[in-house]
Design a protein that fits this description.
Elements: H1 11-23, H2 28-35, H3 39-52, H4 68-91, H5 95-103
């Protein structure tokens, strides 16, 4: 017995279909036929878009746009500081390194 393979629609296609349905230029049946899907699916996407459209205009939370040059400068300075610290630690092994090396041994 072979199973029916489900179609996976991209978000872009869903948005395009839902917007076209909201515009009411064509009927839901015409849109479904044009995109090769059941009219019920078109109606569900239209309803979902209408119910969730407000979320686009809610309080501005989330990722804030930051000037990329500022953050990259900060990151480069952090990299430089860490490289200097690493070089210093390589040249000046402290008692913590010696203890860590001998702790694993059983003589």
């Amino acid at each position: 017995m072979t199973g029916v393979k489900r179609k996976n629609f991209t978000g872009d296609l869903k948005a395009k279909v839902a917007l076209e349905a909201i515009l009411d230029i064509k009927t839901v049946n015409e849109i479904g036929q044009e995109f090769g899907m059941h009219p019920t699916q078109v109606g569900l996407w239209k309803k979902e878009l209408q119910e969730q459209a407000y979320s686009l205009f809610e309080a501005k939370r989330g990722v804030k746009h930051v000037d990329p040059s500022v953050s990259s400068e900060r990151l480069y300075s952090e990299i430089g500081r860490l490289n200097m610290e690493l070089d210093w630690l390589k040249k000046n092994p402290g008692p913590a390194n010696n203890g860590a090396q001998t702790m694993g041994r059983c003589d």
